[in-house]
User: Fold this.
Amino acid sequence: MLKKDDVSIGLGLWKIPKDQCADTVYRAIEAGYRHLDSACDYGNEIEVGQGITRALADGLCAREELTVTSKLWNTYHSPEHVKPALEKILSDLNLDYLDSFLIHFPIAQAFVPFEERYPPEWLYDPDAVNPAMKLAQVPLSDTWGAMEELVRQGLVKRIGVCNYNSGLLHDLMSYAIIKPAELQIESHPYLSQESLIRLAKNYGMAVTAFSPFGALSYVELEMAGADESVLTQSIITESADKYNKTPAQIVLRWGIQRGCSVITKTTKPERLQENLDVFDFALTDSEMAAVSALNTNRRFNDPGKFCEAAFNTFYPIYD
Assistant:
């Protein structure tokens, strides 16, 4: 049976409102979550830090038991900005180090000073007549070299990448002195990403899947339709009935049974507990294959679409 030590169900902090964030983090740690997935761009790291600080002060766990992840935003790719960006994150989270620090997107944008706007988000000048992204000529290898220095200085334990494709992984491995420890990608039954996950594991990288329920994370952003929910698929509902689990638990079980950690987002106490209760059963090989067969390569978090629609800039990173 797959154990919690092999993979984790993490709490994702994207889109959690500031006024709910500290309490949600505290309740999650109280419920047993030890993996917290944050980012500068989520705009709530001060509140995340408040929740962590209160949980540690109340003795819910030791700092060493937590895996706290954050991410380097696009505007801080230049080597001279990487460490200050991390230091800002650590200050907001009220932590001395990160367990994992990831390049958020393989997209380098022009620097925006902290005092001007934080988080800087995607638009270079939101008040411009025709606001758009402003790109920067920073090779990913330069950014990675600055990330490695953070490990040497003891500010982060591990470094990795998000939203990389196979070509970028091959390239990264050709120049990395400190190899990436983690790849975080969108993955769910409609976007199984089998080859990319296999490649990452061959390179010795842990894989973390975000948006494990697919469309549910994107309906409110008008980036998906409500009819695209994977939770109503017959293989999911029939397995839920068979194992006396919810459809969401079946999808999460499929995710971790592939050997991936999975990031979920909720503010509801009952859902926090439900999402953790997936280690007491296992899907059969045929059930796993049937869920994987739902794959249609449907990507919801695609810069090639949302950057043009929302930020007036066509910038695809996937073919």
In short: The chain has one domain: 9-233+260-289+297-311. The chain has eleven helices and eight strands. Residues 79-93 form the longest helix (15 residues).
